[in-house]
Amino acid sequence: MSNTQKKGGQTLGDALQSAFTLTAILLAFVISIIVYKYVMGNPVNFEGGNPAGHPLPGNYLAMVYKGGFIVPLLMMVLLVLIIFSCERAITLRKAKGKGRINVFVKDLQTNLTNDKIEDAIVSCDKQKGSLANVMKAGLLRYRILQHDPKLEKDQKILALQKEFEEATALELPMLSRNLVILSTIASISVLIGLLGTVLGMIRAFGALAQAGAPDALALATGISEALINTAFGISGSLLAIVLYNYFSTQIDSFTYKIDEAGFSLVQSFAATTK
């Protein structure tokens, strides 16, 4: 497959990815509203069967419900985080291919040392994944350049490096796609939670002022309900930071493997080509 065809496929993939992102966010929002209104806001969770009243003792669903309209937003953010974390995990698993990467890279290096280019290509077809795709593009170019009498050795090496870099540039964006969503959630989740807390505190103190007399119980209840948003937001942010760092580490490690395999390819070509 030519680089032009690959770029066309990448454009289509970007469009599908954008549609998936929008659909996932809308779906998470709808699910959050339904859970908030009909599960957490179920009358059986409250004293007297009235969602406007106090939660039943020990009923955490009702307590979270009292966090207000910010709660479904935080739930949506958490669901989006889960959806895209699963998507990243599946994508990275597919990018690594069927076998162990270390074994695959070692086999490639052995085949290159013995000038068994066809065997290396077959190994790439069996492995599949991003690394295999990059290496196969380089190997195909490797064999063509070996028998090209028109180019000097330095020109052949530069041509091989360029082919490898182009193939890598087409594969790497897929690995880091949607990580920006995880990093954004890590930032905004806690801010949304704090916003809910501030609004809840304003509501609690406003109700206390209208009552005309200090009511410690009402104030404590209002503050505890407001702080639910903070706890929810911090939890989402913490989880997003951990997942973002995990996936970033996985991508960095995978990128290193690609660079290692590419270096072996170029070095082998330089050693066997006159």
Structural class: mainly alpha
How large is the share of residues in beta strands?
under 5%
General shape: rod-shaped
Written as H for each helix and E for each strand, in order along the chain, the element string is HHHHHHHHH
Question: Distance between termini?
Answer: 28 Å
> How would you name the oligomeric state of the polypeptide chains in this document?
single chain
Helix amount, in percent?
over 70%
Q: Please describe the biggest sheet, giving its number of strands, its sense, and whether it closes into a barrel.
A: none
Structure description:
It is a single chain. With 274 residues, the protein is mainly α. It has one domain. It has nine helices and no strands. α4 runs parallel beside α9, α6 packs antiparallel against α7 and α7 packs antiparallel against α9. The longest helix has 57 residues.
